Amino acid sequence: MYEESLDAAEETHLRSLTTAEADGDERAVEAALRPKSLDEVVGQERVREQLGLVLEAARLRARTPDHVLLSGPPGLGKTTLAMIIAAEMSAPLRLTSGPAITHAGDLAAILSGLNEGDVLFVDEIHRMSRPAEEMLYMAMEDFRVDVVIGKGPGATAIPLEIPPFTLVGATTRAGLLPGPLRDRFGFTAHLEFYEAHDLDRIVQRSAALLEIEARPEGTAEIASRSRGTPRIANRLLRRVRDYAQVRADGVVTVDVSRTALELYEVDTSGLDRLDRAVLDVLCRRFGGGPVGVSTLAVAVGEERETVEEVAEPFLVRLGLLARTPRGRIATPAAWEHLGLAVPPTAEPTLFDPAGHEDMESE
Question: Would you call 172 a catalytic residue per the annotation?
């Protein structure tokens, strides 16, 4: 079993986990597993070092830190880092999301309620409305917004002073952020997918906090199938724990992990049911492509956005699927993964690194 001495912070984590599990709240359990300080964060060494310098310098100057932009795929810890920034600065954290800010007035109401030193976290910041973005420019730079009263020629702009605050923006698609908004962030960081050994440390830490008896080989097996994402690793750990408690002796071993993950349809490469369905349809029904993503979505019975945003990025990252101007194609590795003979027409040179959209009409 992975053993680790629990300090005061980890004991607090454990109490939170006990309460959450007693209430049957999976989301509360996931939140309680989050690191509470930069020292507890596993992986992302360069980002941790850079962010630590920004926060330490702000503390030494007794100033609010620069605005921070965090980008990267879902589940890598952007929200966790925002919480850590607030905790490290001993400041309250206000949370909202880009889709929730549909009008400039929504943002003005949020900003007017801030106190000096507060940390405002805006998730999916690239999905804010354009009027709200334009108001945010002035708020980030001058700590002031102009509230417009009335319409037409009689409209009056009333300046509203805002106390200094730190904006933490999170986005999964940094390329959609307007340049003027992106340039106003004093520190930007891109979170990368985690290596298997870092994920193993995360799984071991979570197992210790959840009081799960786990062998190193068992946690390593979970980590290797977690798609480089801590959120997925913690979710799979909880499902393997369920299997171990119900159908085994409660100990997470390598055999228990393999059997449980097979039951939950997560293969050795981390592909789940949807991933394999996309590959299977692409190879067996469409001969490896090219085929449009909308056609793929209909064939597997999912929405286009689900295939495009959930399954496709991971398949492309593993080199199993490629995006071309003519549509999606299966690479030779995809055929091999499904145990099929690679046809002579499978051309890895068709891979389009720019990731262009389909140019076919569907």
Answer: yes
**Within 10 Å of residue 339's Cβ, how many Cβ atoms?**
6
Please determine, for residue 101, whether its predicted confidence score (pLDDT) is greater than 80. yes
Classify residue 63 by its DSSP letter: S
**Residue 225's pLDDT is what?**
92
Query: Exactly one of 79, 80, 166, 253 is catalytic; which is it?
Result: 79
- Kindly report the number of other CB atoms within 10 A of residue 127's CB atom: 17
Q: How confident is the model at residue 352 (pLDDT cuts 50, 70, 90)?
A: very low
Cα–Cα distance for residue pair 176/228, rounded to 1 Å: 24
Cα 53 from Cα 69, distance rounded (Å): 15
Q: Comparing C-alpha atoms, which of 116, 117, 128 is closest to residue 182?
A: 128
Q: Confirm if 146 and 157 have CB atoms less than 8 A apart.
A: yes
Pairing mode of beta strands 321-324, 327-330: antiparallel
**Residues 352, 324 contacting (CB under 8 angstroms):** yes
Q: What share of the chain is helix, strand, coil (3-state, %, to 5)?
A: 50, 15, 35
Inter-residue contact 86 to 119 (CB < 8 Å): yes
| pLDDT band per the 50, 70, 90 thresholds, residue 14 | very low
Give pLDDT, residue 347: 54
- Model's pTM, two decimal places? 0.80
In this predicted structure, what is the pLDDT of residue 339? 84
Q: In the annotation, is 78 catalytic?
A: yes
Exactly one of 64, 171, 172, 219 is catalytic; which is it? 172
- C-alpha 102/C-alpha 197 separation (Å) is 41
User: 214: Cβ–Cβ under 8 A, 6 or more apart, which residues?
Assistant: 1, 2, 203, 204, 207, 251, 252
Separation between Cα atoms, residue 214 and residue 25, nearest integer Å:
22
> What are the pLDDT digits (tens) for 20-66?
444 445 666 667 788 888 888 888 899 999 999 999 999 999 899 99
Active-site residue flag, 27: no
Out of 118, 123, 198, 358, pick the active-site residue. Answer: 123
Residue 269 confidence (pLDDT): 87
Residue from 195, 193, 186, 188 nearest 171 by CA: 188
- Residue 79 is a catalytic residue: yes
Identify whether 171 is a catalytic site residue. no
Which pair of structure tokens corresponds to residue 150?
């009335």
Structure tokens at 299: 């064939």
